[in-house]
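This part of the workshop introduces the protein records we will be handling. To make this concrete, we reproduce a full record directly below:
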Amino acid sequence: TAVALVPLTLWFATSLLALAGADYATVAAWLKRPLTALLMVLQLTALFSHLALGLRVIIEDYIHSGVKIPALMAVRFGCFALAVTGILATLRIALAG
């Protein structure tokens, strides 16, 4: 996921700089382009997968009580929920008529 995040994050950062000061309509028009929407979905998927993996390692290494399993489940659920929310928001804007 880290390898995928490098170019995707560079693309996203340069896009945000290019869109600095733009209004909602301009950003929505940018996100409606098929390649942009695809890259955003890939960015969100890689980002939250990477986040879940990193937090899992931290929990496994540093939590040694009965809270470990619920914490792992909460992290997995939270990252999944955030990823789905971001992807649905992206698709809602991208596919809006």
